[in-house]
Design brief:
Largest sheet: 3 strands, mixed
Number of strands: 17
Helix content: 10-25%
Distance between the termini: 4 Å
Structural class: alpha/beta
Oligomer: single chain
Number of domains: 1
Strand order of the largest sheet: 2-1-17
CATH class: Alpha Beta
Strand content: 25-35%
CATH architecture: 5-stranded Propeller
Number of helices: 8
CATH topology: L-arginine/glycine Amidinotransferase, Chain A
């Protein structure tokens, strides 16, 4: 398994998990605090990896390290620092659902999801991947009420938590999806969730999902853009 994540956290993550990592470099078209975040730079659906064409051209050596079993789709949508022009690849995939702000999402992603029988649901929140930590195909923790409502309506198990207590440099707060990843029934957080105001609810929810917890870093929970995984 290969973990794709920000160069700002990749080495700490590799030491904690023992996984091989692919470190994403900054993309100048994005705002600097999130310019190397995986949930802003790539989207993975099945065996397809979607990335901005310009970012791919500047990081070919990086993408050459990805398994040959994956198809890299270069997206032509213009990426800019201002929201929602920065969320073209920021999609939440859980089970057979693809949740995104469709009007801002790359056409290549929506077309692929439609062709592969995903149920596509549009929400107001553009940062759907950032906002949601997927635990498994049937459950997730989210900081967005609209996403929470959709998950419940679609029969998923979901927990709504506060953005308070999630740090993201340059912003008033970060998101739970950018603050960790779940691998083989273990949730790895970029920080100690016991310092989050909703820690008791998260601990109870994760326990019901038979999901263990590991802290990649000491101190409060931080948003580093999450982790994308490929086999």
């Amino acid at each position: 398994m290969l973990a794709i994540l920000s160069s700002e956290i990749s080495q700490d993550f590799s030491k904690k998990t023992g996984l091989n990592v692919l470190s994403l470099q900054h993309f100048e078209k994005l705002d600097m605090p999130v310019a190397s975040h995986a949930d802003m730079l790539i989207s993975i659906i099945n065996d397809h990896i979607f990335c901005y064409r310009e970012y791919y051209e500047k990081n070919k050596r990086l993408f050459d390290k990805i398994s040959k079993d994956y198809t890299i789709v270069k997206v032509d949508k213009i990426c800019q620092k201002e929201y929602p022009k920065d969320v073209g690849l920021n999609c939440l995939v859980i089970g057979n659902l693809l949740i995104s702000k469709n009007e801002a999402t790359a056409k290549e992603i929506l077309d692929f999801a439609h062709e592969n029988d995903y149920k596509i649901i549009s929400v107001n929140q553009g940062y759907t991947a950032c906002s949601t930590l997927v635990i498994n195909d049937s459950s997730a923790i989210t900081t967005d009420k609209g996403i929470y409502d959709v998950l419940i309506q679609e029969g998923k198990r979901a927990l709504l938590v506060s953005t308070n207590g999630i740090k993201l440099n340059g912003y008033s707060c970060g998101f739970i999806g950018g603050a960790g990843v779940t691998i083989d029934n273990t949730a790895y957080f970029f920080g100690d969730i016991k310092l989050h105001p909703d820690c008791s609810k998260m601990l109870e929810f994760l326990s019901r999902e038979n999901c263990k917890i590991e802290a990649v870093l000491p101190g409060g929970v931080c948003d580093f853009g999450g982790v994308k995984l490929i086999n």
